[in-house]
Each structure stands twice: as C-alpha cells, then as structure tokens.
Amino acid sequence: MKVEIYSDIACPWCHVGKARFERALAAFPGAASVEVVYRPFQLDPAAPERPQPHREVLAAKYGPQALAMDEKITQLGAAEGLTFDFDTVVENNSLLAHRLLRFVLDTYGHAAQARLKGRLLDAHFAEGLDIGDRERLADAAVAVGLDRAPVAAFLAGDGLVDEVTGEIDEARQLGITAVPTFVFEGKWMVQGGQETSTFLRALEQVAKETGTVVTNPVVTDQDGGACADGACEVPAAQHDH
C-alpha cells in the first residue's frame, strides 16, 4: 500500500497529523507493506525568503486571536507528545526544505525522507529552526543519519525546483487545498490531522478495498484540524472515536 502525505513544514497540523498517522501505522498489522511518501505543499508560496518571527507573522494576519490559536495547538501537541514553542518559531519560505525532502526521497528512499520530515518538523516548531538556512537544513539531515557532503552540495544549487513546484501545482489540481492530506493508493483521501483511530480505520479499509474500482471516496472526521492558505483551523474539542 502506498500513502502519499501532502504537507508543509510550516503547518502545525501536519506535525500533529504525522504523529497520529505513525501511531496508527504502528498498530496496523500490514505496516511492513506500507510505503509512506511525503509530497510538497506550500500554505504560502509567496512567503518571502527571509526569516521572520512567527509571533509577528501571525499577529499581522490575525491580530489578538493569534495567541489563542497558538495556545490551542500547543495543548493539542502536548497530548501527542509534541513540543510547540511558538516564541522561538521562525517562519520562512518552505520551498528549499521541500526540495531537500524530494532529494532525500530520490537519493536515500522513503524511510530516510520520513526521518528527515520528522526532524524538520520537530526542529521548526520546538527549536527555532530556520527552514531557509542551508547549514541548519544540512545539520538536520546529518541528525537523521545522512551524509553532509551530498546534502550540502544539493542545497548549494537549484536542483529539483521545477519538479517540486510541479508537484505542488499537481496537488492543487487534485483538489488538495488544505493540509495535511493523506492519499491512499492514489484513490482514497483523508484530510486533516485526524485521530489515530480514524487513520487506523482508513488503513484497514484501504487494505480491504485495494484492487477494487472506487471513485475517489473520501474518509473524513469532523474533528480533524487542517491548515489552508496560512490559516489553521483548531476544533473546539478533540476526542478519540
């Protein structure tokens, strides 16, 4: 089974969704046969290529409610064992990081890409990582067991720009407007940082349906938060089902 996860490093719900999906995958009997690939998506493709404090960026967009939005995400993250320290978060255009993730996928495979994706999310939201800083991106790659030299050489150039921007355009054409979005076997779609139990049900359902002709059924759950166009929706209450 192939699962393609469309997400952005700048998206807190993508961090939550990854943790919940991986917990579901660990409980899924067929986990060894599941290939997970991370696909690029940019909530703000026009974001300037320079570091900016998260608090300032969010306040400029949403005013006084920005702090409450961050507090809700921080609480939800803590329940998943994730740290969100928005006082240290630095925003930047995410294209460079997406290009690196694609390079790692092509060069080292999907397992290495997943490790790097997790490291980038952890460092971005908890350690003040500037995802536009080439040296720190290389540090992240080394931290998950990759060789610095090829990664640094890639980051010094402009490789995979067309491929990654093309993938981002394809995501929009597929109707993906919010992230995270999980696409199973190119047919079944789950949107948002769903509860672990929802992801597990989706894995089980797709395992049963694989090989049948199904026209884009969508598995949804009203409690699954997502981010779209820079805005992150936080459900009033979260609970397992």
Automatic annotation (TrEMBL):
Domain (DSBA-like thioredoxin): residue spans on this chain: 3-203
Coiled-coil segments: none
Superkingdom, natural source: Bacteria
CDD domains in the cross-refs: DsbA_FrnE
Pfam families attached to this UniProt entry: DSBA (PF01323)
Name of the protein in question: DsbA family oxidoreductase
Organism field: Streptomyces fildesensis
InterPro entries documented for this protein: DSBA-like_thioredoxin_dom, Thioredoxin-like_sf
